[in-house]
Fold this sequence. Notes:
- The protein has 28 helices and 36 strands.
- By secondary structure, the protein is of the alpha/beta class.
- The strands form seven sheets. The chain has an eight-stranded mixed sheet with strand order 3-6-2-1-9-12-13-11, with helices on both faces. Strands 21, 30, 31, 32, 33, 34, 35 and 36 form an eight-stranded mixed sheet that branches. Strands 22-23-24-25-26-27-28-29 form an eight-stranded parallel beta barrel.
- The longest helix is centred in the first third of the chain and has 18 residues, at 64-81.
- The relative contact order is 0.07.
Amino acid sequence: MKNYVVLKFGGTSVSSRARWETIASIVRSRIEANETPFVVCSALSGVTNLLERLLVEAPSGTHHETLATIEGRHKEIAAELGVPFELVSNELTELGRLALGASLTNEVSPRLRARALGMGELMSTRLGAAFLESIGVESEWMDARQHLKAVALPNEPDAKHYLSALCDYSADEELAAALKPRVAVVTQGFIATHAHKPGETVLLGRGGSDTSGAYFAHKLGATRLEIWTDVPGMYTANPREVASARLLKQLHYEEAQELASMGAKVLHPRCLAPVREAGIPLHIKCTELPDVEGTVISGDSPDFGAQVKAISSKGGVMLVSMDTLGMWQQVGFLADTFDCFKRHGLSIDLVTTSESNVTVSLDPAANVLDPATSEALLSDLREFCTARMIGPCAAVSLVGHNIRAILHQLGPALEAFGEQRIYLVSQAASDLNLTFVVDEEHANKLVQRLHELLFHDRVSDALLGPTWNALFHPDGDSDRLDDDVWWFSKRSELLELAKDGPAYVYDVSTIQRRAEELQGLGLDRVFYAIKANPNPEVLKTILDFGFGLECVSPGELEHAKAMGASERLFTPNFAPKEEYISGFESATYLTLDNLHPLRHWPEVFAGRDILVRMDPGHGRGHHKKVKTAGAQSKFGIPPEQVEELADLVKRHDINVIGLHSHVGSGITYAATWSETAMFLAGVADRLGSVRILNLGGGLGVPEKLGDKRLDLSEVKETIAAFRQARPEFELWMEPGRYLVAESGVLLGRVTQIKEKEGGRFFVGLDIGMNSLIRPALYGAYHPIVNLSKVDGSPKIVADVVGPICETGDVLGHKRRLPVSEEGDVFLIASAGAYGYVMGSQYNLRKPAIERILR
Ligand SMILES: *Cc1c(COP(=O)(O)O)cnc(C)c1O
């Protein structure tokens, strides 16, 4: 029993002396454990690309510089390893001859291509094997082509056999007999011998070295296949795109296969079948961090229950949408159309059908879709249907066992798709993946959002390992928002301020920036809704921009007047009669939002100008409690009462100069306000006297990292389009939150920490729901940061709570935080709107005070 273990090392793992020393120590430790290592290597990183370039240049005879670069790379590494460069001179000579041949015949045949591209692996292994010998690791170089033979497939084109062959990997006693115990074999990935022409090289496809490793593992009946690469394993998402992606410690073959096929680049999709058939576990390990456990892929990974294990995304996907106009029912429709794809050599990946449309996706990895092919395909398809190409799109897939059982949990995750177009949804019959095809440009955001929703509050366990950052930058950040938020750059001032006790701190320059943005919207008037934050310094800052103030009570009106606001808009709701009477004295404009006052106290309004608040019938907003339109909402006059309104105002000589609608708060859908304008213009046409349309407030700010930011330029565009259609109206808006939310943070200190069973942490602060009630009242999310340890990597998952005697006194649930201590300063972000002003004396505790930062 020789206990084979196959170790495959990728390009970056064989490209320096340090990495070869790691290889040597891995090989030694396997030998010490009584295993026989069988080492499969890639070419030096970048060399396969250089060889590709060489083949592009060779037919025109311009390849000499590239050949010299390739030679130089190997000379360098040979010197670094202290082995003779002459070990690769045969390969380099042959490479020169192949290139010369191509320049003479003016073409590169698949045969020549395979031969030339295979040189990279031959050279890296010659140098590596010599290095191992030189430092006393007994090893033997082996030509992989002696033992790995391609199989000929029926109808296989010649080019495919040379460039992307499949091999016979049945148990190979001859190979086993050739190996000596305790001696490491060093051989090549990527290459094999032609099925019928001994002596000719074929390739296993780009990235095929993994597959070589799997073939050899199966041939030898190895106890394990280890794939050593530059990442420590498979992740819950691509760690280069999602910083908080988590290492997956264990996966079933099927799941790994699905992930590899759906775009995860760590493993070549073809490498799983051979090991899976023989039940050989596959370990993914990182040469840079050899001690990290990595991912173990096997047939007996524990059952973690139904859950999403990873999110992958694959770009460059083209869709072909075929509208069938009733032909769908016809016998053979699918056969006819699919035959067109076959004729053009295109393989279909995903398919969805409806009564009148069939949409399929074409995987870029499996197809060559040049413009000529696309055109030819479409014109063939048009014989049967109207066909068009959509793309480039991206396929975003959720992967995991038994996805069907957890579809219901995906509800909130699917909100992430809110305003984006989903072209195609496909649930694999294997129940291992759910795929959404969206515009390529949206894919990254979508992956971020889904990942946040599905993984952000998960602690490390048998399935989930550390994040990429935690492994490679153990002192780095992870949960912090962008570096360019104001409170990150002013954190030392904030830490100083925090010494004086709990406080809301407002940053004046942030308010100014938002005000400038609103000025740029091209509105006739902006009123700031002062209920969001009536702090005098905040108001002064905003009044400097020439904005009016929108008030909802006599108290706010009085405050606005005292602050010197010349334009005051009063919007009472279910207020007593006296408030309307006094309102006409102290406000510039008054908005009425019910017919009751006109029916019962018309004398208050007779002869006056008013605005009227309408209910467009549907609300928007980030939470049902902040939707301010629709039959459920107490606000606004429904459109069916417009006739009565017209009667009443006519009868009492009241002049409706404006219409108003405010449909909700925290809205990120850019066309909301132009849609409101359109609705109000329709009502205006029925009344006649209207010259002002007040489109309300509600402009949203991002709640969480990765949330979509409301695109103000789009708001501006849609409003401009409305204006062009209906230039007769003056357009107003009355935002509150947008001006102030991000300018404010709430600072508090850690009082106590508690740990309960199951690793549940509570971090207690000296601020609670009496200072900030939004999380308890609306379930609002506020980013929470330990400002004293802003560079600390997240280590615990904790509920952040206050000192109020209420179970609901929670500022944030399940937040990933660094290990925190009594006295640390915590920052609650985006607290500038509806924060201090909603504070209370509950429990007779004083809420946080207000401070200004300039
Ligand atoms: C609260 C309110 C606003 C401001 O809403 P934001 O979401 O803060 O922009 C505007 N108009 C009316 C009538 C309001 O009640």
